[in-house]
Design a protein that fits this description.
Radius of gyration: 17 Å
Structural class: mainly alpha
Oligomer: single chain
Number of domains: 2
Order of helices and strands: HHHHHHHHHH
Distance between the termini: 24 Å
Number of strands: 0
CATH topology of the largest domain: AhpD-like
Largest sheet: none
Helix content: 55-70%
Shape: globular
CATH architecture of the largest domain: Up-down Bundle
CATH superfamily of the largest domain: AhpD-like
Length: about 190
């Protein structure tokens, strides 16, 4: 269970928003419910989530999904892995690619990743380091693969997953069961 329980009474306007989000996601979202203790955090997080890229001409769904999954694994967030990995096959991501995103195979040995996907993953790896460290190679590869707009989409997508990871883990929120049994977490064990 989480470190903090959601409030017993959630204000009406927040309940409406929460209901809409949970209906769209198909799950009861414990983190969002807990955030209603502080409506500014609930609303701010919701606005940020609503505005992140989900499909852009130069950053298609598959690439954004790969970035979200890889970030989730790099920062070791079971909730994020569960949510971002659900239906990975329908997003065109193979079992071999999942193994690479988990760190079980070198990314450069997976022939199905495109050069732009590899450069995005290399950049994401820099973004998830503590302390942050951006190699010249990673920056140049990302700049070569993406327009300035695409570069910002890449960085903001990874940062958004990092935000949710830190928030969800600091509240002690367990996986929500998006992947049924979160089978991706069990792969390779």
């Amino acid at each position: 269970m989480s470190y903090v329980d959601p409030p017993a009474r959630i204000p009406f306007f927040l309940r409406l928003l929460l209901r809409a989000v949970e209906k769209r996601m198909g799950k009861r979202l414990l983190a969002n419910r807990i955030l209603t203790w502080y409506p500014k955090a609930f609303l701010g997080s919701g606005i940020m989530e609503g505005l992140v890229a989900h499909d852009e001409p130069e950053m298609p769904r598959r690439l954004l999904a790969i970035v979200r999954i890889y970030t989730s694994f790099l920062v070791s967030c079971p909730f994020c892995i569960d949510m971002n990995s659900r239906d990975f096959e329908r997003k065109g991501i193979t079992d071999e690619e999942i193994s690479a995103l988990q760190g079980r195979l070198p990314i450069d040995r997976v022939g199905t990743f495109t050069e732009s996907e590899k450069s995005a993953l290399q950049y994401v790896q820099c973004m998830c380091r503590t302390p942050l460290e951006f190699t010249t190679e990673a920056v140049e590869n990302a700049k070569r693969s993406f327009s300035p707009r695409g570069f910002v989409i890449l960085a903001s997508t990874c940062a958004q997953v990092n935000f949710w990871t830190r928030l969800i883990q600091s509240l002690g929120v367990p996986p929500a069961g998006f992947s049924a049994e979160c089978s991706v977490l069990k792969r390779g064990r």
